[in-house]
Specification:
Elements: E1 3-10, E2 13-28, H1 32-42, H2 47-55, H3 60-78, E3 88-97, E4 101-106, E5 112-117, E6 120-128, H4 140-153
Helix pairs in contact: 2-3
Length: 160
């Protein structure tokens, strides 16, 4: 499993090393679009909070993501020397498109149809430490102010 230490620098003195753990599961027989909602749900949560959320979801993808998170947590403790297994948060939670296979479904009177069997991949990035605070929601007025400011700051190229 890939492991990375990220260093945060201020001036020339390194402050802190953050352990980053990547884990994935490939070719899950589940739709990528259905899995995306669950991945988006747990992004930015602590690992204990994410496991609690997935415990109460009755979707098939929730069971798969819960297994992957438990595997990643176990790997972090066993192989990467994380001291406290609950001191992890989910920095990224992504889904990807897997292999799609076609099968024939036979009907009566010589008719048939093609079925697509969807598969997806699930990727997770765990970081050591507490999760960052959530960003405050942006209102429409704030977005409009930013848009007007971008329009004012632009430069028109090849004009007088």
């Amino acid at each position: 499993m890939p492991i990375k230490l990220e260093t945060l620098f201020t001036s020339e003195v390194p402050i802190k090393f953050i352990l980053v753990i990547y884990h994935c599961r490939r070719d899950i027989k589940y739709s990528r679009d259905k899995m995306w909602y669950l991945a988006k749900l747990i992004k930015g949560m602590s690992i204990d909070q994410a496991l609690a959320q997935l415990e109460f979801s009755d979707k098939k993808g929730a069971k798969v993501i819960k297994e992957v998170l438990l595997e990643a947590q176990d790997l972090a403790v066993r192989k990467h020397n994380v001291e406290f297994k609950s001191n992890l948060h989910i920095a990224e939670s992504l889904t990807g498109r897997g292999r799609y296979t076609k099968h024939i479904r036979y009907h009566a009177k010589g008719m048939f149809a093609f079925m697509k069997i969807n598969r997806c991949h699930y990727f997770v990035k765990l970081m050591e430490g507490p999760p960052p605070p959530p960003e405050p929601p942006r209102t429409g007025f704030d977005q409009a102010k930013e848009y007007v400011q971008e329009l004012r700051n632009r430069t028109l190229v090849h004009t007088l």
